[in-house]
Design a protein that fits this description.
By secondary structure, this protein is α/β, with parallel strands linked by helices. The chain contains 6 helices and 7 strands. Strand 4 and strand 5 form a beta hairpin. The longest helix has 18 residues.
């Protein structure tokens, strides 16, 4: 199994917790091959909104001078993708959001009804399973918003499975890593 971990720049220094390394170690303990990509929002060009990735160069952004196309391809080739993002008022960090905006080539421009809701059609036969881990000090409402946002994003990608966790302190980090490990080891292909 191949797992791609997409981290923001603060994930290795949050409250003296190296969440990035903790996550890597946890996933490796399950026998999965792990690739970690540190995303820096300032190094990812903003989406131009040109939709060339949907109509002129399907599946590829026309901007090629940053990491977005490479990471988007790694995402599709993985069995699982883990987003490790600081929560910012219930939303993704700038680094993760910058990549998500540029990952739209991985979905189709066409729509269909899925469980009574309009969704993008799938560009590929399958999308990797998604795990989103939000970390940082936050209110209960911000956590609820973050969980809802991550779940809605996952619905658009339509992975077979998706999980969302939030972490504020060391105890919660350890609980989330144990839950993730248990799920992986019990045969749930996360």
């Amino acid at each position: 199994m191949k797992t791609l971990v997409l981290c923001d720049r603060e994930s290795s220094t949050y409250r003296a917790l190296d969440l990035r390394s903790l996550l890597r170690m946890t996933v490796m303990e399950t026998g999965s091959e792990v690739k970690i990509v540190d995303l820096i929002g300032d190094e990812i060009n903003p989406c131009l909104g040109c939709f060339h990735c949907w109509v002129k160069t399907p599946g590829l952004c026309i901007q090629t001078n940053d990491c977005a196309n490479t990471v988007a391809a790694q995402e599709i080739q993985s069995d699982a993708v883990i987003f490790l993002s600081k929560m910012s008022y219930g939303a993704y960090s700038y680094d993760i959001k910058s990549f998500l905006d540029r990952s739209i080539p991985n979905i189709s421009s066409f729509f269909e009804m899925v469980h009574g809701e309009i969704r993008h059609k799938m560009r590929y036969k399958r999308f990797p399973n998604m795990i989103t881990i939000g970390y940082g000090e936050s209110t209960a409402e911000e956590r609820k918003t973050f969980i809802s946002l991550a779940e809605r994003n996952a619905l658009n990608m339509r992975p077979q499975k998706h999980f969302v966790y939030t972490v504020e302190n060391t105890e919660e980090a350890n609980e989330v890593m144990q839950s993730l490990k248990n799920a992986l080891l019990s045969g749930v292909r996360v």
